[in-house]
Amino acid sequence: MDLPTLYQRTLDWWVTRVDTVGEGQWSDPTPCTKWSVRDLVNHVVAEDRWTAPLLEGATIAEAGHRFDGDPLGDDPVASAHEAAEEAGSSAAALLPTGGRVHLSYGEEDMEEYARQLCADHLIHGWDLAAAVGADRRMDPELVDEVAAWFADREEMYRAGGAVAVRPDDAGDPQTDLLAAFGRSAAWTTPGGGTGSGRHRTREGGRAGRALEGEGAG
Fold this sequence. Notes:
Layout: H1 3-18, H2 37-55, H3 60-63, H4 76-94, E1 100-103, E2 106-109, H5 110-132, H6 140-150, H7 154-159, H8 173-180
Antiparallel strand pairs: 1-2
Helix pairs in contact: 1-4, 1-5, 2-4, 2-5, 5-6, 6-8
């Protein structure tokens, strides 16, 4: 699968998961133990806001404080779609050109940055679905693409504290990928359920860096 297609498909998966969040679920817990549903969506929307300027060659310093504060506002779902549409348009135009981007840890290949974002959208989309009781099933093609990229990076991410300890889960490719990112496919809410059950059923919608918040963070 070419990179622009992979990026857009993981972005589409993410925003369709955002569409399932019910009005009373924004403070619910997620598999990212320090984050509520709103915190999780806030994280990914902030990443999407940064995508266009970074792909266009801006440095962190040049971007300044334009993305400080709460990017979700009074309508988190609309904000998520707006950020995704902006990021998707930029990625479609610029990923085929290749090049370098300026990240918080230094320069990086544009392809590597984009693949980090693909993983962010896919895994955090699962986190969100698990938190709100929506469909957790990921597209097998996306699972395979992200798993192949992450195989040589898993231990580096874990050593740096970006992902939690790998659970004992094993079996199908989705379960294995979640385990690589420090997640159990059988995650339930602290009360023992699989989500509060108040999620919205709208599955369509206005869809089109390194992962944080995993496990204990």
